[in-house]
Amino acid sequence: MTTTYNTKEEVINRAQRLKDKSLRQVIPHETTKAIEEQTKEYGDRRKGHLGNLVEKYFFDINPGNTSEPDFAIPGIELKTTPMKKHPRKTYVSKERLVLSQINYHDIVKEDWLDSSFLKKNKRLLLMFYLWKKNQDILDYRFKFIHLLDLLDDISSEDLFQIQKDWEYIVAKVKRGDAHLLSEGDTYFLGACTKARTSDVTRTQPNNDKPAKPRAFSFKQQYINYLIQARLFRRKTSPDSIFAKARRLETIEDAIRVRFSPYIGKSDKQILASIGSDMDSKPKQYKRMLANLLIEREPSKMEELEKANVTIKAITLEPDGNLRESISFPAFDYLGLVEQDWYDEASGTMADFHQQLETKKFLFVVFQKKHGSKEIVLKKTMFWNFPMRDIDEAKRVWMTTVGCIREGRYGDLPGMDDSPVAHVRPHGRNANDTIPTPQGTREKRKSFWLKNKYIQKAIEDDEKST
DNA sequence: GCATGATCATGC
DNA sequence: GCATGATCATGC
Predict the structure, then answer these.
(1) What digits encode the pLDDT tens for the residues A182-232?
(2) Which of A27, A421, A386 is nearest to A177 (CA)?
(3) A278/B11 CA-to-C1' distance in Å
(4) CB atoms closer than 10 angstroms to residue A331
(5) What pTM value is reported for the model?
(6) Which nucleotides of strand C lie under 7 Å from a protein CB?
(7) On chain A, which terminus has fewer CB atoms closer than 10 Å, C or N?
(8) CA A98 – CA A193 distance, rounded (Å)
(9) CB of A382 within 8 A of CB of A415?
(10) Protein residue nearest nucleotide B6, by CA to C1'
């Protein structure tokens, strides 16, 4: 009844026939009608369904829900995944790429090389389609078709990072912290939530606390990098034996190595040693200095972008206090009231939620010196927003959205309303206003993480290292 | 001393 | 041209 694919080439050749076409254009008209009859009841909730349709009606396979790859013999897992047009970069991924489910009890017994993750996802047939709002899934047009072989097709550095991400997730589950997993914990491979509703939970080893079900996923930024590197730049040099023999580093290690010669040095000493005459007056001076230390190896900036790492230059007072809070990009009132903190049907997070839960921050920490204009590079640290505080962030966000909906712009949460986050102006100046749902205009604002909260994170990091 | 509002200069 | 990250300025 179904077709058997024996080789990689058979699968790719077949897949290529969908390039620049929609499913509707390649399957018989009667089939289309039958599908439409069947799927009427789903309404808009047909997410994840396109992959099944492509398997069934285009490839004529029926892999079911197993730990084996969809094409069992050549060992290929099929992924249909949406892209959006982006004004600057031609295409970006609409979301993370969700891979196999994490079984908390099994995974703690696994090693990377014989992991169930690699067994299922070693070879991914990526079929990117162009997503359009309200379009029928049968009409999505497939733009890029690419076979990604994790062991051969990804650079050895990236694969090393993916392995370390996997190991980090497993280690966290092993110590009974599956309920504290966050996508922000890791760089390329994330543990994203995967459940129909938020009250679904799983048991975990070594802790009685229930944990959200999660799946492995390639984080959105990493998929964006793959789209740019693999699909637009065409041939990047294949990994040679030499490349594989190179020194392997995680992103964290590579950054630490960049900064370590300068830790404890003053800004003047750093500038002198790298022969720069940078002006120290601008507000973003320390940020530019941090950039300069990374950028002399230009590829590292791309590394940080694809790992969804945001650099924050932080300056402590001589006594160790942190004066300033940390800002996020300004929000738009009209967009904010349209968002859900977490939309279970689509798996979409509100912007602020996504920034907190998926981003990794690189804090470049400087400290002022008593009675001197000089500052000292104290340390660098990687930090991501801890899941134990996510409910507090959500509360602040909900309050904010509530105020905007009701037009109470004077009641937005301030610094005293939460130990974690607040709302403050974030425009070019006091005249910088944007439209509101009430048709009025209000000052441009953004969410901020509180100074004391970040200071605590910096102090905790010192204790742990 | 701290919360809050305002602004600057870079770099995309 | 404008968003952004980071800091400055004010006032209680």
Answers:
(1) 988 999 999 998 876 767 888 999 999 889 889 999 998 888 888 877 776
(2) A386
(3) 16
(4) 23
(5) 0.81
(6) 3-8
(7) N
(8) 10
(9) no
(10) A429
